[in-house]
Design brief:
alpha+beta, Creatine Amidinohydrolase, four-stranded antiparallel sheet
């Protein structure tokens, strides 16, 4: 797939040139996000089981891939469905003037209502139940008092813990007024994520994910974050393998049925440079250009792949394999 030329017809079918429709990056610029006030830690009822790291403070990364079999597959589906529903509940509350802290409260209540623990709460001193990354914040934004503004681009990242398993998902949204370039950023990220997922099957190499995602992204003039990637997940929040979303030459890691991990590319509209804030979490693009991310937890099946982070009726704010659109014509 070649990069779309600026004078070519736009992929969206509008009939306009790409540069005048979804290719006008000047409409992407957003004000730099200043960190607001962070509210006190929200409580979780005692009957809800916590991951071990909440009590002992030890955050480990599993060295072995997470493999699910038998009843564990259903447990992962259950927690994945909870995470998907939390994301739907939180995103439904997005509107101009609402703070990301208020969105966190809605998500927190959704976890608790479903009997799950928010995996991020207490993870390596993270104090909130979701991550909210606005505009130039690439990932790990901490919900705070800043009210959302018209045109803000926000990623909501959700991880639920129940019955010994974690389910992780995220999606990107626009608040209030949108524009064609912002729609392009968000939809390209979603499509890249789903295409990467669709490439997974037993016997295939892990590197196929980056082989599919990066060329697709570059064709639209975006770039992929290389410093962060997907990860194994299941009984451990973060485990091997590291999932690159760009083309790499690395030792072969071959998919086998039951392997479970996340696919979660972050797309950049500007330069690759970003800096971590003093809170130790928030990663902000140095040029403040907006980014986007989508994420699913997936499991390799006997003949393909299953998305685990859809709710009980098959819905997900991050999309499903049925949402993969046609490849734009060069």
């Amino acid at each position: 797939m070649r990069k779309l030329k600026s004078n070519a017809p736009c992929w969206c079918g509008s009939g306009h040139k790409h540069k005048r429709c979804h290719g006008d990056r000047s409409l992407l610029a957003r004000p730099r996000v200043e960190i607001g006030e962070v509210s006190p830690v929200r409580s979780v009822p005692d009957h809800i089981v916590r991951p071990d790291y909440v009590a002992n403070g030890v955050v480990g990364t599993g060295r072995n891939p997470q493999v699910v079999t038998g009843g564990d597959i259903e447990r992962l589906r259950t927690v994945g469905a909870i995470a998907a529903q939390v994301l739907l509940d939180a995103s439904a509350a997005l509107e101009v003037g609402v703070s990301t802290d208020a969105i966190d409260e809605i998500a927190h209540d959704s976890y608790v209502r479903q009997g799950a623990y928010p995996s991020t709460l207490g993870y390596n001193r993270f104090t909130k139940s979701i991550c909210t990354s606005v505009n130039g914040v690439i990932c790990h934004g901490i919900p705070d008092s800043r009210p959302l503004e018209d045109g803000d681009v926000i990623n909501i990242d959700v991880t639920a813990y129940l019955d010994g398993f974690h389910g992780d998902t995220s999606a990107t949204f626009v608040v209030g007024t949108t524009s064609a370039p912002i729609e392009s950023l968000i939809e390209t990220t979603r499509q890249a994520t789903l295409r990467g997922i669709a490439a997974v099957e037993p016997g295939e190499s892990l590197t196929i994910i980056g082989d599919v995602i990066e060329p697709y992204v570059l064709a639209f003039g975006y770039d992929v974050v290389r410093e962060y990637g997907g990860h194994g997940i299941g009984r451990t929040f973060h485990a091997d393998p590291h999932v690159n979303h760009h083309v790499v030459r690395s030792p072969e890691f071959i998919f086998e049925p039951g392997m479970t991990f996340t696919i979660e590319p972050m797309l950049l509209t500007g330069a690759r440079q970003f800096t971590q804030a003093s809170d130790g979490w928030t990663e902000h693009a140095d040029d403040s250009m907006p980014s986007a991310q989508f994420e699913h937890t997936v499991t390799v099946t006997e003949d393909g792949v299953e998305i685990m982070t859809v709710n009980t009726v098959g819905q997900s704010a991050a999309g499903t394999l049925g949402d993969i659109g046609p490849v734009p014509v060069d």
